[in-house]
What does this fold into?
Amino acid sequence: MRSIAIINQKGGVGKTTTAVNLSDGLARQGKRVALVDLDPQAHATLHLGIDPRSARNTTYHLLTGDAEFASMWRTVDNGLKVAAAHLDLAAAEVELAGVVGREAILRDKLAKVSGDLDYLIIDCPPSLGLLTLNALAAVEDVFLPLQPHFLALHGLSKLMQTVGLVASRLNHRLRMAGVVLCLYESGTRLANEVSGDVEEYFDHLRTEGPVWEHARLFSSRIRRNIRLAEAPSFGKSIFGYDKSSAGAQDYHALTSEVLSYYAGR
Amino acid sequence: MRSIAIINQKGGVGKTTTAVNLSDGLARQGKRVALVDLDPQAHATLHLGIDPRSARNTTYHLLTGDAEFASMWRTVDNGLKVAAAHLDLAAAEVELAGVVGREAILRDKLAKVSGDLDYLIIDCPPSLGLLTLNALAAVEDVFLPLQPHFLALHGLSKLMQTVGLVASRLNHRLRMAGVVLCLYESGTRLANEVSGDVEEYFDHLRTEGPVWEHARLFSSRIRRNIRLAEAPSFGKSIFGYDKSSAGAQDYHALTSEVLSYYAGR
Ligand SMILES: Nc1ncnc2c1ncn2[C@@H]1O[C@H](COP(=O)(O)OP(=O)(O)OP(=O)(O)O)[C@@H](O)[C@H]1O
Ligand SMILES: Nc1ncnc2c1ncn2[C@@H]1O[C@H](COP(=O)(O)OP(=O)(O)OP(=O)(O)O)[C@@H](O)[C@H]1O
Ligand SMILES: [Mg+2]
Ligand SMILES: [Mg+2]
It folds into this structure.
C-alpha cells in the first residue's frame, strides 16, 4: 500500500482539492484507494457529499478512541473509500495532550488496512500540530500542494524541518515525494518566478539525505479553474463534475504522473 | 480609537491582504493607524518588508511577557505603525494554557494606546484559538474576509458562534461589522451564488441581537488581481506597489466604505 500525506501549514493552497481529485483519479484507474480526512473542518468529507454528522465513526474516534478504519469507511463513486472527519477533531490535540505515543496512533491503525488498499491518501489541516504529525508518522510519502505566491518558500523550510524531525525520530520510512503547484496562474511572472525558486530549493535539498533525495517538483501543474471550486457543491470530484474541464485535465495528468512515480520505485 | 479584528478560520481567504491594504489605505487618508500581526506565520509583518527576526519585541512578547505596544511599533510608509509577529507565537497557546484571563491579555495592553491612534487593525491566524480569542476580546469590530466559494458559508456559522460567545462572556462591546468578499472571481456563477447566500445569512442574523444588528456585506468586493499577490514581494501595500491596479481600486473603495461606516456610527 502506498501511503501519502498531503500537507502544507499555509491555508487555502489546494490540499483538499488535491487529496480528493488525486484519490478519485487513482480510483478511476482501477486502484483500491482510501481517502482519510484528518482536518476538523472536514472539507474533503464535505467535498464528496458526506455529512460529518451522519458518520457513525469518524477520524476523531480513530485518534481518540477504539475505532478502527474498517468500521468507518464510507464508499463513494468508483469504489473510493473515505474515512470522514468531524469538527470534534479540533479537540483531539487537547484531549491527547498527555498521551504517550500520541503521534503514532494513526500509524498503528493504518498497518491493519495496508493489505486491502493500493493507495491511502491523508488530507491534513493547515497546521503542523498533532493531526499533521500523526499523518507524517504514519505514511511513506509527503506531497506538498503549493500556491506559487510570494510567501510560499518562506513556509517551505519550516515545513521541511518538521518532515525531517518526524523522519529521524518517529518514522524512518518517511520521504518527501514532491511539490504539486496548485492554483497556478499561467502566464504570470509571479508563478514563473516562484516555481523556479521551488525547483532550485529542491535541487539543493536533494543532497541533504535519504528523506530528500527523490524530492521533485511534479511537472503537472494545477491551473486555476473555477470548475475545481464548483465541484464540491455537487459532492463530486472534478472528474465526476466536469471531465472535460482544464481542472480535470490537470488532475488527470497528476494522477498519471503519480502512477509512474510509484511504478518507477 | 476604532479597533478591528480581521478573522476567518479558513486559510488563504485574504485576511492578511485585507489587513495590510486597509491599514495603509486608512493611513494614506491621514489617519493614525496601527497594524497588529497576531499570526505566527507573520505574513502581514513580512508583507510590509519587516523581518520578524529583526524585531526586538514582537506580539509574542506582548502576549507572553511584559512588553507593551509602545516598545514594539515599527513605522513603515505613510506613518503606518506595525506590531510585528514571530513564529514563537505558535508556542503562546501552549505557554498560556494555565494562565488566568489568558484571553484578555491583549485587551489590557490595547487600552494603553487607544488615545494615540485612530484605527488599530489586528491580522489573525486561520484558527479560532487563543490568538484569535485575544483579538476578539480586545476589539470593537469584527471584519470577515470571505472567498465566495462553496464551503464559505459552512465555516461562517461556527465563526459567528465564537463571536457570540466572546461577546457575551468576555467583551460586551464586540460587534460583527461586516464581510469583505475577497478573491472575487467576477462573472462566475459561484461567486454570484455564494455572495447571495452570505447576504441572506446576514439578513437573518441581524435580528438575533446587538452583536449582529449592523452586520453587512460590504459592497466593495476585492477582485482577484495578480498585483495583490505581487505586492508583498516588494514589501509594499498595493498602493505602494501599483496604485493604478484593480487591486488598488478595490481596496481604495473598501477604505472609503470603512471610513463612512465609522462616520455614520
Ligand atoms: N486550481 C484551482 N482553481 C480554482 N479553485 C481552486 C483550485 N484549487 C482549489 N480551489 C478552491 O480554492 C479553495 C481552497 O482550496 P482547498 O480547500 O483545496 O485548499 P486547502 O489547502 O485544503 O485549504 P485549507 O488550508 O483550509 O485546508 C477551495 O474553495 C477550492 O475549491
Ligand atoms: N484579491 C486577490 N487577488 C490575487 N491574489 C490575492 C488576492 N487576495 C489575496 N491574494 C493572495 O492569495 C494568498 C492568500 O491571501 P492571504 O495571505 O491574504 O490570505 P489569509 O486569509 O491571510 O491566509 P492565512 O489563512 O494563511 O493567514 C496570498 O498569496 C495573497 O497574496
Ligand atoms: Mg483543506
Ligand atoms: Mg494571513
